[in-house]
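Checklist before submission:
- one chain only
- standard amino acids only
- sequence pasted in full

Submission:
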Amino acid sequence: MQGGERANTSRSIQEQEADLFAAEFLMPSKFLRTTFLRCFGRPIDGTVPNQDLAFDLSAATGQRIDSLVLASRDPMYRALLVANTSTFKGRLFVSLAEQFGVSPTAMAIQLLDLDLVK
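Returned file contents:
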């Protein structure tokens, strides 16, 4: 089992396994990774202040995102931003959550589990 929300050990092992199965069924790792790289170019490490990343996510979300704040927030915050983003570095696309027909939260968890967003 990988990290993220699915590592919650207070849930039964059957529930955790069901979550993993559903995630892989709805968001196959290989296909998601390929789609992510096509949209974003490379994994996103938001743990280090990066003006370009903050600018791109600001433009995509319509909110002003400061690079220091972005780096200080938890990984789930960054993953949710990415899951909902439909433009990045001038590329327009349907958000990952919409492309895969899942909630932004489910997509964010999968992005974290696959180390596509930090």
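Reviewer check: Residues 4-113 form one domain.
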